[in-house]
Structure formats: structure tokens, C-alpha cells
Design a protein that fits this description.
TIM Barrel, about 325 residues, about 10% strand, two-stranded antiparallel ribbon, alpha/beta, 12 strands
């Protein structure tokens, strides 16, 4: 059966009959979970198992946003709270090697929890580079404001995730750190020169271009394309994401329902695909929205299909490690 180039969310702790019928007919590439979907470890395991069963694909991607800090869909008491990325950046100022090791260990622990639940994709690391005066939507989700420190710690997270059997997603291509608005609520416009963007904002993404998965930014870069945000800009995706940065992994949109984007969801879907995105991400539980997107989203084919296959092909069995000792080491260093 053909797979649709879309990732959908669902309503609650288990799939409804309507959702089962819809997802079975549409065959999305994968699913994304939120706090509304996560009650207990046993319940999440049942949910992820049922999702793969209805798709008939045991490697079907199931995503979550589990960065640490403010962005954690799996929360206490059932799951351990994790530090925000900025905590590792702070350690890096004194001891870069220790920061990389801790970021790696923390990612391994976080991914091990996810893997146990049947979640095989984590939308992390956030490798945006914030600047003074930027909106705090990124803030401490970033490792810091030095592009090379961000790249180094981002690579440590990527390595830790993949060594624990979870695919990472670098975000938000080609950089959300300079935005002075929250793209969930409005469209940010960055007027910085292309030369400066290449020197700073784009640098971590270029260093991490071999990552298997990436997510776009709903941000306008006026020096490159003043008419459209990166998600729907063929110029930004061709010249910057695929060109200067050299990212050839699977490129998914950020959530299409965010207010930075204009037009109907069908129009947003078609514009994103036309611009060069491989995959549509839709995060609400709204069935009418999902139907509209499903009607507009293409079957996964061509280079997008190749990138999807390539991403899943690098997903390997977790490497063994001492969870108790690693937990003690991370907690001790971070004062957990």
C-alpha cells in the first residue's frame, strides 16, 4: 500500500474507531505523540503498538518532542525530567569535553526511555543560535549563542540518540534563533544579511548536515526570500537547506497549523511540498484538518521516498550501556 507524505497526531490515550479507519485508509508515514497521548508507560506502549499494527509497518516512525526543559511531552512522575539544552552550554564554557560527554549520556538516557515505549524518533536537538533581543520561544532550548558550541553539543545528542535506537531530528532549518516573534503565533521576519546568516545561524546545521531527519522553520529570511517562510520557500530550501547547508536527509515541516503560515491547510500542504519539503507534519487532533491535509498531501515517492528509506535504514538496535551508572553520572554533574 502507498504511504502518504504526512505525519499525524491523534486525540488521546488510544486510537478511536474513526482514527483507526482514517489512518488505515490514508497510510501516513508516521505519527507524533503529545502529552495528551501519554498517561503511563504501559498505555504508551499499547498505543504505539496499535499504531504500527494498523499501518502494517513495524518500523513506522512514531515521533515525540522530548528535548528536555520546557519541551517534554513525557513528564514526571512516570518519566524523568531532563535538563534544557542551555544547561550543557553552560558547562561547555568551563569544560567543553565534559559538556559533550554529558549531552551524549543524557541523550542516551532519554532515548532509552523512548525506545522502551516504542517511540523511535525524537524531535531534538534544537540547534538554533539565539541572539540578544530574539523571542524566547527558543531561549534555553538552544545550547548557546556560539554556533560551534551548538554544533558540537548537537552532534553529541545525535550520537546519543542513535546509539540508543532513536532517530534525531535537527531543527529548525535553517535557523529560528534570530526570530523576534513566536512562529506558533505569528510570522517572524529576519532581516539579517545572508553573509551573517551563513556565518552564524546556518553554521550548526551545516556541521550536522548528515543528520537523517530535519524540521523547517516558519521564518522569513528577507535577504534570501522576502516573500515566503523557509517552509514554503523553494529558494530557501534549494539554495540554503539543500545547497549551502548541504542537508540531504528527510525534511519535514514544522506543524502546519502554526499561525506563521497563511492560507488553508490544503494550500499550506501543497506549498510546502512544492518548495521541497519531503514530509508534512500536523500536530492537532482535529479530524477535519487531517482529512484536508490528507487530500492534499502526495504519496511518498521519488527523492522523498529515498530519504525516508535512508533515514529508517540507519535506525539500529540500541547499544548496551549501564543505565544506572550513566544516570548517576548525569544527575551528579547537573545537580538533578
Amino acid at each position: 500500500m502507498s504511504v502518504r507524505a504526512v505525519i499525524f497526531g491523534c486525540d488521546g490515550h488510544e486510537l478511536t474507531a474513526d482514527e483507526v479507519a482514517f489512518f488505515r485508509a490514508v497510510q501516513p508515514w508516521g505519527f507524533i505523540l503529545f502529552g495528551r497521548n501519554c498517561g503511563s508507560p504501559e498505555q504508551v506502549r499499547r498505543l504505539t503498538s496499535s499504531m504500527r499494527e494498523l499501518l502494517g509497518r513495524q518500523d513506522a516512525p512514531i515521533l515525540v518532542d522530548q528535548e528536555g526543559g520546557r519541551v517534554q511531552r513525557l513528564r514526571a512522575p512516570n518519566w524523568k525530567a531532563r535538563p534544557a539544552a542551555a544547561a550543557f552550554g553552560a558547562i561547555s564554557r568551563q569544560n567543553p569535553r565534559a559538556a559533550r560527554d554529558l549531552a551524549y549520556d543524557n541523550a542516551r538516557l532519554m532515548a532509552a526511555e523512548l525506545c522502551d515505549l516504542g517511540i523511535n524518533v525524537d524531535c531534538t536537538p534544537c540547534v538554533d543560535v539565539p541572539v540578544e533581543g530574539a523571542h524566547n520561544i527558543i531561549g534555553d532550548r538552544a545550547f548557546g549563542n556560539d554556533p560551534w558550541v551548538v554544533a558540537s553539543l548537537g552532534q553529541a545528542v545525535i550520537d546519543g540518540m542513535m546509539d540508543s535506537g532513536v532517530l534525531p531530528v535537527i531543527k529548525h532549518l535553517p535557523g529560528h534563533g534570530r526570530a523576534r516573534a513566536d512562529s506558533h503565533m505569528e510570522l517572524p521576519v529576519v532581516d539579517t544579511s545572508r553573509e551573517e546568516l551563513e556565518r552564524t545561524d546556518f553554521t550548526p546545521f551545516r556541521a550536522l548536515a548528515r543528520a537523517p531527519l530535519g524540521m523547517t522553520a516558519h521564518v522569513v529570511y528577507s535577504a534570501i526570500d522576502p516573500t515566503a517562510p523557509a517552509t514554503t520557500s523553494k529558494k530557501v530550501i534549494d539554495e540554503v537547506v539543500r545547497g549551502f547547508i548541504g542537508f540531504d536527509g528527510l525534511l519535514m515541516t514544522d506543524d502546519l497549523t502554526m499561525r506563521a503560515l497563511k492560507g488553508s491547510l490544503a494550500e499550506r500542504t501543497k506549498a510546502s511540498i512544492a518548495a521541497g519539503c519531503d514530509m508534512i507534519l500536523h500536530c492537532t487532533r482535529n479530524m477535519d484538518e487531517m482529512r484536508e491535509i490528507a487530500d492534499a498531501a502526495p504519496v511518498l515517492s521519488g527523492k522523498a521516498l529515498e530519504r525516508a528509506h535512508r533515514a529508517l535504514a540507519v535506525l539500529s538496535r540500541p547499544k548496551p550501556f549501564d543505565i544506572a551508572a550513566t544516570t548517576a553520572r548525569v544527575d551528579g554533574a547537573l545537580g538533578a
